[in-house]
Specification:
The chain has helices at 6-33, 58-76, 132-147; strands spanning 42-47, 50-55, 80-89, 95-105, 160-168, 190-198, 202-210. By secondary structure, the protein is α+β, with helices and mostly antiparallel strands. This is DNA-binding HORMA.
Length: 215
């Protein structure tokens, strides 16, 4: 039986729901905006006060549901440090874009690429109470940035595949359905930081690395 205070458990459950839901819409938005899947395999849905595109392709939906269920477990156990969406050249396997979502959990520190899960970078933890409306507005701002990404990201003039990478605590066991992977960085790429959002439990900082036309 868990000894975690009821109020803390409830807050963690609600915050985790927000983060998992955001990840789902963010991944769908990137896959749509970057043309990884054909536009006709997406349908428009109203969320966060804006229109978002969500896949209607059965196999992709099933895959994302399974991934997000695992992400939910990691978040509830405070094990998830980063979720990364990699877009790679389907022919060569070279990474062309890398969308990273850093996860900072109440009382912990954000872990950056290349750092051990137990290392802290000295950033402050979240202490400010947030209203539901404020959280939704912050999430909306990130989704809007993803939607607008086509205005600054290079054209993907090749067939691309995607992969989701999860960074967890070193103590966290690797699930049977997952396998170890290298970071899949963008070689000689450019990095752009996006907006962030936070609940009183989690803070998510987003960014994208991409290969320029002359790289």
């Amino acid at each position: 039986m868990s000894t975690e205070p009821a109020s803390k458990a409830i807050a963690l459950r609600g915050s985790t729901d927000h983060v998992v839901e955001f990840f789902g819409y963010a991944v769908n938005s990137v896959l749509y905006q970057r043309g990884v899947y054909p536009p006709e395999s997406f349908e428009r849905k109203s969320k966060y006060g804006i229109g978002v595109m969500v896949t209607s392709e059965p196999k992709l939906r099933e895959y994302l549901v399974n991934v997000l269920e695992r992400v939910d477990q990691w978040l509830m156990e405070s094990d998830l440090r980063k979720l990364v969406l990699v877009l790679a050249d389907a022919r060569t396997g070279a990474t062309v874009e890398r969308w990273a979502f850093d996860v900072q959990t109440d009382g912990s520190k954000t872990r950056r690429d290349g750092e051990n899960a137990g290392d802290a970078n000295g950033e402050e933890t979240m202490k400010t109470e947030k209203t539901e409306k404020e959280i939704m507005q912050e999430i909306q701002a990130i989704i809007r940035q993803i939607t607008a990404s086509v205005s600054f990201l290079p054209l993907l003039d090749r067939e691309c595949a995607f992969e989701l990478l999860a960074y967890t605590d070193k103590e966290s066991a690797t699930p049977d359905e997952c396998e170890e992977s290298d970071p899949k960085y963008v070689r000689d790429g450019v990095e752009m930081r996006l907006r962030s959002f936070s609940t009183k439990i989690h803070k998510i900082e987003a960014g994208v690395s991409y290969k320029t036309d002359d790289a």
